[in-house]
Amino acid sequence: MPTESVLNRNFEDLFSTHVRYEIPFFQRGYAWEQRQWKKLLEDIQNEIIETVEDNNFEQEEHFFGPIVVLEKISDHPTLKRFLVIDGQQRITTVYLFLALIKRLLVGKTHLSADAQRYVAELDNLLINRVSGNDDYLKLKVFSTKGDRLPTYKIVFGENPNSPFLANDQLLYDANENKIDSFVKYVSRYIKNYDVPQLWQLYQALIKSLKIVWIPLDENKDDAQAIFESLNDAGMPLSASELLCNYIFRPLTNEATNEHEKLHNEKWLAARRAVGEDNFEEYLRDLFSIGEKKRVGRERRMYVHYKTKNKRLTAESAKETLNKIFDYTKVYNQIRLPIQNPPQSNEIKQLLIAINATNMTSIYPFLMALLKSLENDAITLQDTIALLRETYVLLVRRKITSLAVTKYDTFFPSLLDKIINEPDKVRAFQTQVQTEQLWVADQLFEDAFLTKEVYNPRELNFSRLVLQEVDKQMQAFGELPDYSTIHTIEHVLPQTLEAHWRTYLGADATNMNLPTIVNTLGNLSLNSSNANSSFGQKPFEVKKAEYTSSSALARDIKQREEPWNIAAIEQRSRDLAKIALTVWKWKL
User: Fold this and answer.
1) Which of 279, 332, 402, 576 could form a disulfide with 445 if both were Cys (CB 3.0 to 4.6 A apart)?
2) Coil, helix or strand at residue 7
């Protein structure tokens, strides 16, 4: 980083002239949160205001970090223009802080003759006195990505007259915007300050907070490369922020502002479609499609994309944005098939069942498969058949507790290997066998005697197994409402009271009993109200009280005493044969 012209400055220096500190498009939006605001408020109060003597704030220095800028040619003759490469959060926070102090002082002008003078002084620091057809020119800190409208509103108290207003109103969400969150948080902190206290706070901000001013040379320095290498006050850039910056680098065009349109209609639309909390995992799965292995999490995802697109052009960047947006539909169908039902109800039911296995490592394959269906590259019949085989594979390996580590290398490129085969299910099975993922019938059947079907950490999967077996046992295909009988009952309780230990005899001390009570043979389905009443009741009492809605419960009612390890194992064998018909390979 260049050291020429590096010097210490304060915010009075930064804001005292007509200037625009512009947050480049490759920067993230305003991101500071309560932790940073709280620390700044405490530092100002404890390390500046409480220690200053005779209100000599210029002598009370508090280092606030660097601000790295790149001066650009300004379209306005009286306005200097700087791109803020690092320090966006600091300069934006102070600017907003000053605007909030001004707002509070305006409400106190009737209480103090000094307040109006203070407001005028703040206006000189906050507002550019320039003319033009865009009121945003009046802002000294100018951002995009949904931040400039709330910034303008806190400074001026109204909407701007700007060609960007309509677009910014679409971007602006008061419930999510961090600038509004800042205003609410700091307002609670300083709302009861009187005029002298507000003026002290103002002076501490503009005179005592010291920054290191670092100007870059556009002919020598790569602004974005420097930006990526910097962390901002303990808030490193996320992988998606880095990726956004990289993708938009060849697209940024100040003359047309096309990049803003693409950002809103593709990038932001995709984020909103899949949800902020899921976005990076979505990108990870998307970029894994067709790869030899699933892409790593967080920054490894960004590094993967950057490595594969070292010479990113505007055209390829647009293709990436289109892809990011276009795959959100199938991703949501996979992740939330009830809320986002696919074209076939059979696909929806298979996706619900697949999700119950909690194997998200297969998402790249599922996304590729459903996108191929959407594009008519594969038939509905083949899609359903492949989903069905995938479901069988996942359940068989989960029941048998076999390793799933190969999924990260097996599924991302799987569709490429089978989509052109005439018999796609056979091709799928061949790949499964080649990678030694196949689970034979005998191994699957035997697992029900020794493996726990009930797992309190994966109740959705436990319910799935029991409900599917129960469906197979129901006469004439007349199924009960499983939403009312979804509670799992342990016939032999997991924790044994004295009468059960006496009843079991030697079985009560069997070292395998804690596992056996969670195997398929000891489990049933009941309503939650009924289930809570069973508890430690003796076997004969439970049998009499079990309802007949569940076929599994009816099966228990037909079993004879004693209910011990041998009885549980026999029932596991019986139900395992039914499970074989539920999760059967297509041969």
Assistant:
1) 576
2) strand
DSSP states along 112-150: -HHHHHHHHHHHHHHB----SS-GGGGBSEE--TT-HHH
Q: Give pLDDT tens digits for 451-470.
A: 999 999 999 999 999 999 99
Q: Are strands 487-490 and 209-216 parallel, antiparallel or unpaired?
A: unpaired
Sign (positive or negative) of CA dihedral 571, 350, 361, 292: positive
Q: How far is CA 315 from the centre of its chain?
A: 28
Task: Note whether 199 and 171 are within 8 A (CB).
Answer: no
Please state, in angstroms and rounded to a whole number, the distance separating the CA atoms of residues 208 and 12.
Answer: 9
Which runs of consecutive H residues, i.e. helices, occur in 191-221? 195-203
Q: Is the pLDDT of residue 193 over 90?
A: yes
pLDDT for 134-190, tens place per residue? 999 999 999 877 899 999 999 999 999 998 898 888 888 878 789 999 999 999 999
Cα 343 to Cα 348: distance, rounded to the nearest angstrom: 8
Rounded to whole angstroms, the Cα distance separating 177 from 184 reads 11
- 3-state class (DSSP) for residue 584: coil
- 544: three-class secondary structure by DSSP: helix
Please tell me the distance from the alpha carbon of residue 224 to that of residue 227, in angstroms, as a whole number. 5
For residue 335, give the nearest of 290, 410, 282 by alpha carbon: 282
Q: Distance from CA of residue 235 to its chain's centroid?
A: 17
Cα(278)–Cα(202) distance, rounded to whole angstroms? 40
Whether the bond between 196 and the residue before it is cis, its omega within 30 degrees of 0, is no
- Could you report how far apart the first and last alpha carbons of the chain are, in Å? 65
Structure tokens at 464: 């799935």
Q: Where are the domains of the chain?
A: 7-233, 238-326, 346-439, 444-582
Q: Round to whole Å and give the CA distance between 457 and 451.
A: 15
pLDDT digits (tens, 9 = 90+) for 307-365: 999 999 999 999 999 999 999 999 999 999 999 999 899 999 999 999 999 999 999 99
* Angle, in degrees to the nearest 10, between helices 178-190 and 148-156: 30
Instruction: Give φ, ψ of 309 to 5 degrees.
Output: -130, 55
Confidence of residue 5 (pLDDT cuts 50, 70, 90): low
